[in-house]
Amino acid sequence: MSYVIVARWRPRDGATEKIQAILHELADVVRREPGNLQFTVLRACNDANEFLLYEVYASEEAFRDHQETEHFKRLVLERAVPMLSVRERTPYCVIQDGKIECPMRSSSLPSQQPFG
Fold first, then answer.
1. Residue 55: predicted pLDDT
2. Binning pLDDT at 50, 70 and 90, where does residue 109 land?
3. Average pLDDT over residues 14-27
4. Which runs of E-coded beta strand occur in the chain?
5. Residue 61: phi, psi to the nearest 5?
6. Under 8 Å between Cβ of 67 and 108
7. Contact between residue 36 and residue 66 where contact means Cβ atoms under 8 Å apart
8. Cα dist. 110→27, 44, 90, 100 in Å?
9. Measured between alpha carbons, how far is 72 from 26 in angstroms, rounded to an integer?
């Protein structure tokens, strides 16, 4: 059963191009993780400061493993997070054959992480 995360990032003023470069580098390495099924970076057409990350992992455990990688800690936590004014993450359930498969209902993932 896959584990889906949608993240919304909004850079602080003046950091948009740096965040885009970090996301380009991040996407390249995340797509090579064994548990990653999809990692898509989107930028809003009507707001260049709005990024959406669509991430699909083989399992919740694969997502947890992703968060423990060196590249996640370096690129996301150390480099990107200080330049973000908004970082929201929402897990989604998969609807398959008319049934909702939602392993993340017990997850402790915070949905929003505003930065001040």
1. 98
2. low
3. 98
4. 3-11, 36-43, 51-57, 84-92, 94-96, 99-101
5. -65, -40
6. no
7. yes
8. 22, 23, 8, 21
9. 8
Judged against a pLDDT cut of 70, whether residue 115 lies above it is answered with no
Residue 19 CA to residue 85 CA, distance in Å, equals: 12
The per-residue pLDDT for range 49-105, each reduced to its tens digit, is: 999 999 999 999 999 999 999 999 999 999 999 999 999 999 998 888 888 877 655
Residue 4, SS3?
strand
Please, what are the domains in the chain?
Answer: 3-106 (3.30.70.100)
> Looking up tokens 């398959």, which residue turns up?
96
pLDDT above 70: residue 1: yes
Q: Is 3 left (phi over 0), alpha (psi -120 to 50) or beta?
A: beta
Q: What pLDDT sits at residue 103?
A: 63
